[in-house]
Structures are given as C-alpha cells and as structure tokens.
UniProtKB/TrEMBL annotation:
This is Uncharacterized protein. Pfam families: Ras (PF00071). SUPFAM superfamilies: P-loop containing nucleoside triphosphate hydrolases. One of its GO terms (molecular function) is GTP binding. InterPro entries: P-loop_NTPase (IPR027417), Rab_GTPases_membrane_traffic (IPR050209), Small_GTPase (IPR001806).
Amino acid sequence: MVVVIYDSNVFKSNLLTRFTRDEFSLESKSTISVEFAARSLDVDGKVIKAQIWDTVGQEKK
C-alpha cells in the first residue's frame, strides 16, 4: 500500500490519471469528493490489480 499525503493543489490527482490512463494535465481541477481508478499489471507472470483512491485532500493531520 502506498499513501500520498500533501497539501491541496499539488497535482496528487494527476498521479491517478498518469498511472491509470497515461495522461497528465496542468489544468486538472481539485478533487471534490472521491475518485477511483484501477490498472492491471503483469508482475513476474502474475496479474496484479492496483487500485488508486483519490480523496478530497482535507483529511485531518
């Protein structure tokens, strides 16, 4: 499991789109609630499904 926590407006949401759709946009908007995406990877002949959750970024520190 990987958790990325940082300030709002630093393009954390672009990690999701870059990894799952191979896209990046400087004009992306802040996450309003929750976004979810998945990608299947072949690792040593086994298929691994990676799930990425993008939350609003207002979690308590």
